[in-house]
Amino acid sequence: MRNPFEYGGVVRGDAFCNRGKETSDLVRAMENGEKLFVLSERRYGKTSLVRAALGKLPRKGWVCAYVDLWPTDSEAAFVTTVAKAITESMSTSVGKVLETARTFFGSLSPSVTVDEEGKPALTFGLGKHTRAGPALDEVLETPARIAAKGGPRVVVVFDEFQQILEYGNDHVERKLRSVIQNHPRVSYLFLGSRKHLIQKMVLDRNRPLYRAGGHYPLGPIAEKHWQPFIRQRFADAHKDIDREHIHEVCELTQGHPFYTQHVCHVLWELCEPKARVSAEMLRAAVKVLLERESYAYTTLWESLTLSQKRFLKGLAAETSGMKVFAGEFVSRHGLSSASNAQRAVQALLAKDLIDRDNGSFLITDRFFRLWIQSVQSV
User: Fold this and answer.
1) d(Cα 250, Cα 21) in Å, to the nearest integer?
2) Which of 162, 188, 217 represents a domain boundary (last residue)?
3) How far apart are CA 12 and CA 226, in angstroms?
4) Model-level pTM?
5) Which residues of the chain are modeled with pLDDT < 50?
6) Do 251 and 154 share a domain, yes or no?
7) Which of 109, 161, 166, 344 has the largest count of CB atoms under 10 Å?
8) Range of the structural domain that residue 274 is part of
9) What are 342's strand-pairing partners?
10) DSSP, residue by residue, 198-254
């Protein structure tokens, strides 16, 4: 039997845990033509969630363009990536893809080749260093052109949206602001996994996208949803896991989808059919995971300053919600002063090693947190 716990990619179908309310909320936002910024830590399942929500929309009458901005590093790359996503959302065959690309993006010199699997591969003649201004206007106005005059409704999803901060200017941000507010039949979802950057983009009065849309923070999955999800998948393989051990898993991962699925994946492999998960198995599963990551974590740890290490040690040792700039925390963990702790926080935020959490901070990689705890206990 295939392991039912999936992680590291887009999770679909029965492998996708809960998120019923979130899925409904996003479907409703798209139906209403909203502009929404979906924020969360890395590996929280934003892509899986949005793809699940897109799957709820009727195919007839909707065009859904999913734009992955992670590989882009310039305005020109943004233009061609968006053009490609829109074209491929409307066509699949070689002839149709080229016809659609020429209809909407003729100035970008589209061409299509066929790969080894017989699938069309679309490219555009816009070079990386080409002046992309007019092409940017054309691409960003296309969703409204498609949706005009009784055409289909359009959804554009920008994944890893914070990547546009790497382009060297705010031209894309400014153009997006002027465009999206005039597209009532187009819904835009902006997905970001570096929350502090996305929040800066939409909450800083000096940024072009200030208050350009609603905010939808994505939180962890509650244990009440993990309990039946995990128990049923063990039961389907004639394996047993009791409520208390599922609770321990959720305590370890803090309900984070990626880490919860990952721990359960290893635990499921360790547990034989007709057997019951034990405390020893759970400890062994965590040990396996930490051993896999040990080299990467050691290398990362050695790159940090002493103050950053002390701050992370303190954060790993304390309960959630700790006031990290208070004298008690600063003194207990050898940080010398509140200003020293603040400098460590700013550096660790920039490295994406911590994130803000209800007035405090947390270590974003739950396994790294466990690794720090295990190293300190030796």
Assistant:
1) 20
2) 217
3) 16
4) 0.87
5) 378
6) no
7) 161
8) 223-294
9) none
10) HHHHHH-TTSTTTT-SEEEE--PPPHHHHHHHHHHHHHTTT-B--HHHHHHHHHHHT
